[in-house]
Specification:
Strand content: 5-15%
Order of helices and strands: EHEHEHEHEHEHEHHHEEEHHH
Largest sheet: 10 strands, mixed
Number of helices: 12
Length: about 280
């Protein structure tokens, strides 16, 4: 059974914002990703998180990626480390400072990065969101990854196919079935695409997000989405609720921008529009 998510359901999930709250109460997100080939991806995730109200985003990445991020997004905090084999110890030593961690945007597929994702999946004590090349790392691990209840995966059809050991065409032909199988193995999954599907282990209903269209099919859009979901997870929201709210706001931001045309939308513009969508939902 697939059930369309309603606007009222989205509004009901909006986090409270007390007049006297401080930034720490908005949530602290650790984002780990970026590589020489994809230096901008984690910056877009950080922007998405901050535009959705996250109190603090710390980027764990290569020095060159951190420098690029801070140059365009000075609100982000950075931990520049040249050797990804050092990332895990640093992340775990500061785990108590964060409400959630985001793994994978622009990470690349070098062996050290794959080891980092495997280590975080096995040892990170808090909620995890895995996207991009983080999903590639999970597919490599397969059955070696323990079951977790505090995760969100955000694959597109190609990434979903790799996780399931099948083809993108097979996923496309049975998106509901693919979402259910992914959720049973991995926890909570937002299968991206036109009418993104949200499935979670232990829930009989698959939920469909009906907002957004071709304007979202641009480079970096998924990175912004993962940042949005990560922001709500870091703020203490349950993985399923965070995925629903982040996915809905991301789609609504696309529709907002599509009023001016579906071509030429930039991922950074989607991130900026999410702030406007949240304001409109609260009103």
């Amino acid at each position: 059974m697939i059930q369309n998510v309603t606007r009222d359901e989205v509004v009901a999930l909006l986090p409270r914002r007390r007049p006297d709250m401080h930034k720490g109460e908005r949530g602290r997100l650790l984002a780990a990703g970026g590589s020489a080939r994809y230096p901008g991806a984690p910056s877009l995730s950080a922007q998405g998180a901050l535009r959705c109200g996250c109190g603090l985003v710390s980027l764990l990445s290569l020095p060159s990626v951190c420098a690029a991020c801070v140059a365009r997004l000075p609100e982000a905090v950075c931990w520049p480390l040249e050797d990804p084999d050092e990332w895990l110890d640093v992340a775990l030593s500061e785990a108590s400072s964060f409400g959630a961690a985001l793994l994978g945007p622009g990470l690349g597929r070098m062996e050290a990065a794959m080891r980092f994702v495997a280590g975080m999946w096995g040892r990170w004590p808090g909620p995890l969101l895995v996207d991009g090349d983080g999903l590639y790392a999970l597919a490599l691990q397969g059955a070696n990854c323990r079951l977790r209840e505090d995760v969100v995966l955000t694959p597109h059809e190609g990434e979903a196919a790799r996780l399931l050991g099948t083809t993108p065409d097979a996923v496309r032909e049975d998106r509901e079935g693919a979402a259910r199988r992914l959720a049973e193995r991995w926890g909570c999954v937002l299968l991206k695409g036109h009418g993104s599907l949200l499935a979670c282990r232990g829930r009989s209903t698959v939920q469909r997000l009906t907002w957004g269209g071709p304007e979202l099919a641009v480079p970096g859009s998924g990175d912004v989405l993962s940042g949005a979901i990560g922001a709500f997870m870091a703020g203490g929201m349950a993985p399923r609720d965070a995925a629903l709210l982040g996915g809905a706001v991301h789609g609504m931001a696309g529709e907002w921008l599509a009023a001016g045309g579906v071509d030429g939308v930039l991922a950074s513009e989607i991130a900026d529009a999410m702030r406007l969508v949240l304001g409109e939902l609260r009103s």
